[in-house]
Amino acid sequence: MDPIIKGAIPVLPAADTTESLNWWTEICGFKETFRDATPPNYAGINRGEAYLHLAGMSDKELARKVGDQTMVRIAVQGIEAMYAEYQKHGGRVHPNGSLQTKPWGTKEFGAIDPNGVCVTFQE
Questions:
Q1: Rg (Cα) of the chain, in Å, rounded?
Q2: Please, are residues 42 and 55 in contact by the beta-carbon 8 Å criterion?
Q3: φ, ψ for residue 85 (rounded to 5)?
Q4: What pLDDT is attached to residue 113?
Q5: pLDDT for 44-87, tens place per residue?
Q6: pLDDT above 90 coverage of the chain, percent
Q7: What does DSSP assign to residue 82?
Q8: For residues 118 and 67, what is the distance between their CA atoms, to the nearest angstrom?
Q9: CA atoms within 13 A on the CB side of 62
Q10: pLDDT, mean over the chain
Q11: What is the pLDDT of residue 71?
């Protein structure tokens, strides 16, 4: 029997893990699933079937540089409701990322997390 891949858990860089954790939970509606300490240096979050880990980096400048080059796409069912919820919680949409249908067929919007990670929610 061939192995079956059951998912992926991206690990996102964080210059300030607490700030990042707050953004993901308070703005994006994810739930914290674990942390290594208070304040955390490493934490896990999820919403539905999407799981992410946040990893603190002691070099804040490097964390931002890595963050600025990191992208994650999150599949959503009910993208219009997610878009409205995100904005209701104070989330800022990326200047080029308003809710729209792309030529490749997905309907999506984009945001930037506190560390510069480009986050795209798509349906």
A1: 15
A2: yes
A3: -60, -45
A4: 96
A5: 999 999 999 999 999 999 999 999 999 999 999 999 999 999 99
A6: 98
A7: H
A8: 8
A9: 5
A10: 96
A11: 95
d(CA 117, CA 18) in angstroms, rounded, equals: 15
| Structure tokens that stand for 109 in this block | 């919007």
Structure tokens at 86: 């995100």
Q: How far apart are CA 115 and CA 2, in angstroms?
A: 38
The DSSP 8-state label assigned to residue 46 in this structure reads E
Say which residues have a Cβ less than 8 Å from residue 62's Cβ, sequence separation at least 6: none
Q: What per-residue confidence (pLDDT) applies to 85? A: 97
The separation between CA 45 and the C-alpha centre of its own chain, rounded to angstroms, equals 9
7: left (phi over 0), alpha (psi -120 to 50) or beta: left
Amino acid at 92: R
Residue 47's DSSP bridge partners are: 50
| Residue 94 CB-half CA count within 13 A | 18
pTM across the whole model: 0.93
Q: For residue 31, what are its two tokens?
A: 């739930």
